[in-house]
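To illustrate the input format used throughout this study, we show a single complete record. The first block contains the structure-token representation of the backbone; no residue identities are included at this stage. The design step must infer an amino acid for every position from geometry alone.
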């Protein structure tokens, strides 16, 4: 059940995107997919958390929500407290962490979402392409319209598959993204391994 205050319609699968609302997060493309698939939109609550400083892009996103009548399926939270972000992360069923173009060399969001045992949909590019296929769902760069409907539908329709993918993500994050391993790799890379 939803934590108090999140106001999630009964039976909806919660999709979550975290980060500054700008074009490379592909939020507009996700909204367009939901707009073209109203049956799918009716099953989800897509929540976007992050700064809305890009006023032009934010207006375009809001216009797409209105154009497709998605006010009941998409929620732009904006910035929120760490506590509220954590509540949404706990409640999220699927994280949509699409990036195109990829602008970062590493992704703390991806690591945190995997460590939380969430199934994550990523763009198959850059650091995101390095995640194992069985621990995330990957779509090709710029292919949201063609590939995202099927991926979201599979994750919405199959809670067991969602949980299994989240479990594999948690195991991967726990094995790969550990401070002791990072320190050891860093020490070896700098010739500090005693050889």
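Output of the design step:
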């Amino acid at each position: 059940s939803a934590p108090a205050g999140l106001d999630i319609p009964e039976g909806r699968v919660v999709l979550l995107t975290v980060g500054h609302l700008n074009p490379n997060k592909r939020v507009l493309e996700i909204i367009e997919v939901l707009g073209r698939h109203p049956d799918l939109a009716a099953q989800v609550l897509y929540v976007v958390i992050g700064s809305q400083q890009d006023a032009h892009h934010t207006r375009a996103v809001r216009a797409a929500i209105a154009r497709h009548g998605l006010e009941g399926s998409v929620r732009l939270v904006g910035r929120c407290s760490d506590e509220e972000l954590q509540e949404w992360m706990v409640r999220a069923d699927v994280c949509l962490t699409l990036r195109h173009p990829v602008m970062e060399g590493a992704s703390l969001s991806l690591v945190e979402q995997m460590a939380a045992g969430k199934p994550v949909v990523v763009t198959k590019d850059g650091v995101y392409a390095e995640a194992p296929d069985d621990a995330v769902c990957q779509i090709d760069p710029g292919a949201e319209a063609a590939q995202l409907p099927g991926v979201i539908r599979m994750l919405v329709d199959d809670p067991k598959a969602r949980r299994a993918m989240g479990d594999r993500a948690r195991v991967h994050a726990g094995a790969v993204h550990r401070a002791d391993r990072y320190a050891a790799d860093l020490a070896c890379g700098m010739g500090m391994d005693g050889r």
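Structural context for interpreting the output: Helices lie at 27-36, 38-41, 55-67, 82-91, 108-115, 144-157, 159-176, 179-189. Residues 159-176 form the longest helix (18 residues).
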